Amino acid sequence: MVKAVSELMLEPKDSLGRFDILVIGGGVVGTAIARSLSRYRWKVALAERMAELSFGTSKANSGIVHAGFHSAPGTLKAELCVKGCLMYPQLTKELDVEYKQNGVIMVAMSDEEAAKLHLYLKQGEQNGVPGMRFLSGDELRSLEPNLSDGVVAGIVAPTGGVVSPFELTLAQGENAAANGVSVFLETEVTSMLVQDKSIVRVNTSKGSITARLVINAAGLYADKVANMAGDYSFVIHPRKGEEYLLDKRLAGIVHSTIFPLPTPVSKGILVIPTVHGNLMLGPTAEETEDREDLSTTFEGFQQIFAMCSKMVNGLSPSDLIATFAGLRPASDRDDFVIEPSDQVRNLINVGGIESPGLTAAPAIAEMVVEIVKGMAPDLGLSVEENEGYKPTREGVRRFRYMTDEERAAAIAENPLFGRVVCRCELVTEAEIVDAIRRGARTLDGVKLRTRAGMGRCQGGFCTSRVMKILSRELGIPMTAITKRGGGSRMLLYRTKELLDDDSFDAGAGLKAIGGDKAV
Known about the structure:
By secondary structure, this protein is of the alpha+beta class. Helix content is about 30%, strand content about 20%. The protein contains 15 helices and 22 strands. A hairpin with a 4-residue loop joins strand 21 and strand 22. Helix 3 packs across helix 9 and helix 11 crosses helix 12.
């Protein structure tokens, strides 16, 4: 152990710094942990391999705040889901993140399925889910008139909700940074120096980090990160889910999130009224060994629309505006893995956080902090509250929700509110500038913070305008702007007459025009 401590005191030339605690992973769980740690006087760092927080698994999350009746009693999933669900109203208020407690309904399409509903009703009651009730098909249609006639019964859980998963992740990270957490982006963990069963140094693509304690919240790569330290206690088995987003024309067709009976590997294919007013359909559940496979398929599309149309009337493929896929970091334990490593003295694993991981995230963070407190004496860490901790972040001014009077006042204060950049989602230049000043560095970073590019035309109108604002605010050329970091450059060549023309927009400028003017 003496050797490890002496090694820890060395400062490599490429060092990013010395910290009390390093959190690996900038998804919804990693940022929740970092924020909770910032309540104490620990020097905390967070390392994320992507260009921005939330760009991994959290970016493609369905955004459902689960009530807690799906998980088996006695599991961490059940305990932390129910606890986390009840934390969301206060959490989203503190961080000014959009959230709706719209409730969830699990429907049965036959008398045989209706009998199975009682098992989930009992399971929910055992887990402590409040307010659950069993309703007939007609009673459900009095609440949700567009449920199909094939729905014969269902259970309602009013505490369920929907949230914007990427907005929540970004807000948690922003609040953690405001409370003193050092956030390192595009910083991929590549290896670890381990001596006497302790992590002495974490090597990354940007340099090394030393920390007394390492918290592994690396999502799809949590097992690989654990392996770097000599811990082989769990394995991640990715499960891909395709999702399909429909136009806001269908807003209000259902108000609650509609579940079928679960399958052995997932909660089934759902109809989800998102917090922003779209309907989202999905996900599928496909086992895969490829941790980067985010492709969608025609077969997945057919499967999802067929299932959702059985539950809800009025759905049409013609309303489809976007398709995407996400990967769930399921583990071989069939439950969350949240524990100090048995193999490494200063490692806490937070892995296998598949559904309902988003819901459980704030409760997971609290659990991890309690584990840290228990380990602190052996690691030489004191446990002192951060008296300057602020749980709230500065509110986001969203033009689309303002009254006419509020809009007039906002424009008078800042004329950039008078310039609409995204017509579909009614996003102004002022909001985009604010997003950049909060940390957006890519086109998707702006998109996830403001919704510019998420509407019916999917960025056909606003992409070039957002790029110009990014270029101006960051002081970088248009050719340096990326969609999501790395090699995802939006423009391959500079075309002076296009890039300098004020009338240049996505409709004209983002198509290939040949020769040395290729875009």
